[in-house]
């Protein structure tokens, strides 16, 4: 006779219905390494065929799993091999044709986003890398589902400042070409240090060179669940008890996510890849990392102590997740995107959360400066300085950091950008007005730190 744990059943229902627990994304990573050809049309035909072959039933089967288990799956996505590698073999390097092929395939397959319009240039650029990077603004402006990323630094290679300068120009132009959408193009573009090839979250997802032919990676999110668990604790519980509660909650979330991921991978007849346990917030009330800080006892995100609270939260999430699954990967931790988190939006709007505080917080969290809107007239050299600073944090600390920043065309401090959906909205935040030009324009490569010599 089966014995049902009534409390566990009710807890799971509450996680979903009351606290916004969901599978944030199921991302099918598809290698396009066998799609190379000297003929651009052949490359595009091979891409369409391969995506249809592996992802033809992704949305249908994900919807079936969602109905079977009553667990929301918010986004269905595809990640492909960095396109700079795929298109480089072509005599005619028409990366825009590949971009539109990817976007058309994503639309036909019904997925929300497709990532991998990417290049890895931490030590320098090939001709194909440069061609792709130059095409990014137009590619993002002329497509709907395509996402792009460029890795400009690693802890082993240092920081490619020539690429940093180039990406500052690309970000600015991507925003300008989508000015009628508040610079949405820049919101689909991320600049990385130490990017990873099994990340299921956009805009930075791509299928890494060492990944298999195809794999299903899962991104699970539950900031609302963690906030509720923390809020239920005795207000006088010490920080060790608090950390244990977060670990226990992360354990439950991870186990549920892996169950869903493995069931979907089996239906698709592809390997299960990793589960990325990231507290990725949404603009929905209660689904906020910033509100976890308040439940911990801070008046609001941005108060002194916020970085310490985030460090503890990030570490506890990782510890809880790693005990629940042998295949925790991707980024895994806590995201702090300003536009996608109701609590962060409020903190930024009220001036509690400054750009400098956000940068400090990125030293201890999953990614970096994420979905931050800045004045449209911000100099390109200042944007390059922001990318360089964030890359330095990642390089020195051997962690993934990123910049996804929106220089909002024709807007300034006091205005806001509105994207809707998961991308939310954000106030325009001021940036330091001191010039970075003399430093960033030196170009070259910032050497890797001494701890890179660890062979």
What's the quick description here?
This protein has helices at residues 6-17, 40-55, 58-69, 83-87, 95-109, 127-141, 161-177, 184-187, 223-232, 239-268, 289-296, 306-324, 342-349, 355-361, 380-397, 437-440; strands at residues 22-30, 73-80, 113-120, 146-154, 158-160, 189-193, 214-221, 272-279, 333-334, 369-375, 401-408, 416-420, 424-427, 445-446. The protein is α/β, with parallel strands linked by helices.
What is this structure's SSE topology?
Layout: H1 6-17, E1 22-30, H2 40-55, H3 58-69, E2 73-80, H4 83-87, H5 95-109, E3 113-120, H6 127-141, E4 146-154, E5 158-160, H7 161-177, H8 184-187, E6 189-193, E7 214-221, H9 223-232, H10 239-268, E8 272-279, H11 289-296, H12 306-324, E9 333-334, H13 342-349, H14 355-361, E10 369-375, H15 380-397, E11 401-408, E12 416-420, E13 424-427, H16 437-440, E14 445-446
Parallel strand pairs: 1-2, 2-3, 3-4, 4-6, 7-8, 8-9, 10-11
Antiparallel strand pairs: 1-7, 4-5, 5-14, 6-11, 12-13
Helix pairs in contact: 2-5, 3-10, 5-6, 6-7, 7-15, 9-10, 9-11, 10-12
């Amino acid at each position: 006779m089966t014995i049902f744990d009534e409390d566990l059943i009710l807890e799971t229902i509450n996680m979903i219905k009351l606290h916004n627990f969901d599978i944030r994304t199921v991302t099918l990573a598809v290698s396009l390494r066998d799609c190379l050809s000297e003929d651009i049309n052949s490359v595009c035909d091979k891409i369409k065929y391969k995506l249809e072959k592996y992802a033809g039933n992704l949305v249908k089967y994900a919807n079936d799993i969602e109905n079977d288990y009553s667990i929301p799956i918010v986004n269905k996505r595809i990640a492909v091999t960095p396109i700079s590698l795929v298109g480089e073999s072509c005599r005619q390097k028409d990366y825009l044709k590949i971009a539109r092929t990817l976007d058309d395939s994503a639309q036909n397959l019904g997925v929300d986003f497709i990532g991998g319009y990417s290049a890895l240039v931490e030590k320098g650029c090939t001709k194909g890398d440069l061609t792709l990077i130059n095409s990014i603004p137009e590619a993002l402006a002329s497509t709907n589902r395509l996402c792009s990323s460029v890795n400009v630094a690693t802890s082993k290679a240092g920081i490619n400042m020539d690429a940093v300068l180039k990406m500052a120009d690309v970000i600015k132009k991507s925003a300008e070409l989508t000015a009628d959408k508040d610079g949405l193009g820049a919101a689909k573009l991320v600049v990385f240090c130490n990017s990873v090839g099994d990340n299921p979250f956009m805009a930075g997802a791509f299928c890494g060179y060492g990944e298999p032919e195809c794999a299903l990676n899962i991104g699970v999110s539950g900031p609302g669940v963690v906030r509720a668990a923390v809020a239920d604790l005795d207000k006088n519980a010490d920080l060790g008890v608090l950390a244990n509660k977060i670990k226990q909650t992360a354990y439950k979330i991870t186990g549920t996510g892996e169950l869903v991921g493995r069931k979907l991978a089996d239906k698709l007849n592809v390997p299960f890849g990793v589960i990325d346990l990231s507290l990725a917030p949404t603009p929905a009330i209660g689904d906020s990392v910033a509100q976890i800080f308040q439940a911990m006892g801070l008046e609001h995100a941005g108060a002194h102590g916020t970085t310490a609270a985030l460090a503890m939260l990030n570490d506890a999430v990782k510890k809880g997740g790693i005990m629940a699954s042998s295949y925790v990967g991707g980024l895994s931790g806590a995201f702090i995107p300003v536009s996608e988190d109701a609590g962060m939006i409020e903190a930024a709007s009220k001036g509690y959360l400054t750009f400098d505080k956000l940068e400090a917080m990125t030293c201890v969290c999953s990614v970096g400066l994420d979905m931050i809107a800045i004045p449209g007239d911000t100099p390109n050299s200042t944007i390059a300085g922001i990318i360089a600073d964030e890359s330095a944090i990642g390089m020195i600390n051997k962690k993934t950091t990123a910049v996804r920043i929106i220089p909002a065309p024709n807007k300034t401090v006091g205005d806001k950008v509105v994207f809707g959906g998961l991308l939310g909205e954000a106030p325009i935040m001021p940036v330091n007005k001191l010039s970075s030009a003399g430093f960033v324009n030196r170009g070259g490569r910032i050497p890797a730190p001494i701890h890179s010599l660890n062979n």
